Amino acid sequence: MSEALLREVEEYKGGRFTITVITERCKECGFCINVCPVKILVKSSAENKYGFRSPTVSNPEKCIGCRLCEYMCPEFAIFITKGERG
Amino acid sequence: MKREFLSGNRAVAEAALLSGLRFYAGYPITPASDLMEYLAERLPKVGGIAVQFEDEIASINAAIGASWTGAKAMTATSGPGFSLMAEGISLAVATETPLVVVDIMRAGPSTGIPTKTTQSDVYQARWLAHGDYILPVFAPWSAQDSYDLTIKAFNMSEKLRTPVILLSDAVIAHMWETLYVKEPGEVEIVSRKKPVEPPEEYKPYKPGEDLVPPMAVFGEGYKVIVESLVHDEAGYYRQDTRTYREMVARLREKIMRNIGVVYEHEEYWVEDARVILVSYGSTARMAYPVAKSLLSRGLRVGLLRLKTLWPLDEGKLSSALSKADKIIVVENNTGRIYYDIARIAGRDRARFSPILTVDPPGFNEVLEAVSKWL
Amino acid sequence: MAVAKKVIHPLDKYLRSDRLPHIWCPGCGIGIALAAMLRGIDRRIREGKLDRNKLVFVTGIGCSARVSFYVDFDSAHTLHGRAIPFAAGVKLANPSLEVIVVGGDGDIAGIGGNHLLHAARRNMDLFVVMITNFVYAMTGGQLAPTTPLRVYTTTTPYGNPEPPLNVIKLVASLNANYVARASVTTPHYIESFTYKALGMKGFRFLEVVSTCPEVYGRHIGLRNPVAMLEELKKRVIYKAHPVVDESDIDWDKGIVIGEYVVRNNPSYLDLIKRG
Q1: Does C165 touch chain B if contact means CB atoms closer than 8 Å?
Q2: What is this structure's pTM?
Q3: B69 near B217, Cβ under 8 Å?
Q4: Is A1 part of a structural domain of the chain?
């Protein structure tokens, strides 16, 4: 996790799943962080251009691909795709 | 061309069918109900549909929705129902939806006298809805005129992408007269311009040379946006002054630029007249024989009969009225067109002869009202 | 449509993504509902059962009605309460179109109540999604027909004296073919109910109970998005075959979601033999 400004699209690659965050769409509601069953989503300290802090992924390898974050995000700002091993 | 015997309402219905009407939505109201009843029978036979909705608000919104599938749509009502349609008309203006709305005036205000007429809704026909806009208003004075002006209403609505009001009244609606109806192909039927560019390049509110945007409709792959908020060419909501000015100015200008075809009046003996009667609709039907009678008595009287009540071609009107000493406005209300004429021809020349009646005006009634100025 | 849009998120192909981020507040459930609906729609399209070019979204006015801004389909942002008759006109004039109405509880069941009633009665071939947040949010938090008793709103500052309307019960009592309720806490049901509704004819009605932290949440002391989500989650009870008698929305007793009515009565188009 970097202190510098996040890029507009951040990809967190785990072997099984990749978590993609479109940071400029995030409004910091906290839903994804709240619903993640393996608790790997952590609020970034860096803000997007609207002043919101989007989630970062502490350990992409632990992602189980449940897509609850994707389903609970109201902003179309986070989604899961299969990783290289998936 | 075929000779027929029809009421004003039926003439409107037949003209609408000739123009390509395929969707009618309405609600029962005297004196417009029989128009809907007639179309409920006729429309399905040409593959169209007429539906009685739960109220006039549903009717106008449904007609607008139907127009957005490419269908020519119409609704007809009277004063109270017309008032309910105000917001819908505003929507049609803002979204540039081709639509014909028929108001068959009756006596008002409020419930009034449903079975009798006045000419009270002139300003309402122009400015019923909120917002800064112009729309065309046509006022027939006979079954033939109801027929012809309905075709014109559809053509103008399609050409200019605007709602058009046809302002009839209870007398004309139910009066049966001989008229000549057109056969398909005998008269030009206009339909809205379609885009030539593909969907990726299309902007729903980008005007053509004529200030009218080509109209893609639902189901054609253009992903159109019907937008009631002030919008830019893409149909996206914009709250800035520049977008507002551009939109409002263009909506006005697209009509005004075509005033030459939108505006019509008829002149009888006006060329040599010293006194010109100005009238329209059912009242004009009596102004005509009164003018003729005065003429036969040696008075230089003419009649200018308005067919279009809005927008007025003030230059054309002014010119037609220029040689007269007096202009007497004869209408069935407490003053509507009179104030336009007073402004255009000058208060010193304009005179007002109101014929406030709920029954068809009598010859002597109109003669007396006019004569007091002679 | 002629604007270059980015396609990053899997649903971006159904969105006018150049207009994102959308206007809905942080924690507003409308985006969740829309995403779930789009997944249901996507499945129908991929299965070849729905033509992407024949889908039309019609909305009225309000927060939920802004859906028509963001979907990359034919869409109409019309008048407050009048989406249903507009949509009926669209469907009747061109029965080959699939018409979806989206609106809030105020728009659909308040000012739009009469149109809702008659469309359901007729079993009009429309899919209506009502996103319920118990308040008129766009205009700042006024009373809605669904606002629970005694709740503060800006127009009932001494507490709401009005018993709320149970829209599920109303629509179920009419002739609708499909009446269901879901919640933004259960987006999978929004998706599957949408998928199902799009395979049916007649009047299909889906109420989606939503979070509204900025306005309704503020009125009831749940302005934090996650707090409101958690509290709503606690109250939502899914049942496979719920009955209308348990459809009252009760913040204490719970909110029963599920498919209340599923039937195959003749639709309006059937009845008039059209399309």
Answers
A1: no
A2: 0.97
A3: yes
A4: no
